[in-house]
Amino acid sequence: MACYGVTNIALSFVNKDLAQSGEVEIPPLLLAQCVATVVLMKLMAPAAKGEPRALRAFSQRMLIASPAALLYAVQHYTRMKTFVLAAVDVVLVARQLVPILCFAIERATGTEDNPQTTKSLACMGCIIAGVAVYARGKAEASDRGTSEAATTFAWTLALHLASTSVANVYTKHVCQRMHASQYTLAVNLVSIPIFLYSSRRHLVPAPGFGSLGGRAKGLAALSVVLSVGISLAASMTQKRIDSASFAVFSNVLKIATIVLSSVLDKDTSVTATSWVGIGAAFAGSYFYSKFRQDPNNAPTGRKAKSRTS
Fold this sequence. Notes:
mainly alpha, about 75% helix
């Protein structure tokens, strides 16, 4: 858990620095992260036998993971793009809306297997109110940027939240039988050709990694190492704690990242109003996870199935 926490926080700052520097193109960086993750996971995994059954199972995992890989590509690309126009805290607070978007997607597609309760709906309202208060505080403190930049950021952030939410729902209902490490490996494998295609104009004419400055090289290499570390640490952490505890732990890390960002990053400005919104949003998210996992809070008259997030 400590390894996951450290790599998670560090990766947010490194990726933000890379995105805002403009020296490193995003698609090749994400491609390098995927390749490094696949190589290390294959080295750590026991050698698979070349039996038809094993090959068939591998092919099925690749097929199942393909939509998730496409969503993964959109999710991580848009997250990097948001760092160009905003501080780390904006993305982390906005991501508290993901459970609400997942609920809306499940309700619209008829895949909801655990009906909402009065308590969980109240938590949704708390999250929305918290994010709104936070956004108001940020708007009051912001005196930079143009309406065009704000619109671009809003669309990028919306696409990031949408791809993250759809990926979560798809993983829950389609990929839930896959082991966490198998899922991570499959998604990264399928993501390689996606990022390779999107990197083609950067890889062919450009001199590449060797043309970067020393600081950019170091940050790019560190980003790849941290990305691999966070994938492995997340898989190991999820083996040891349940999904509700993992969600709470992830939110604690987000708050720690926001606090560190407000102290260390001169571009991060969190007003008192925004802190109130952050507290409300994260409190709502915590109790939402708690109520959704607690069988005693299931709606009467219907047996709710366990939920994995």
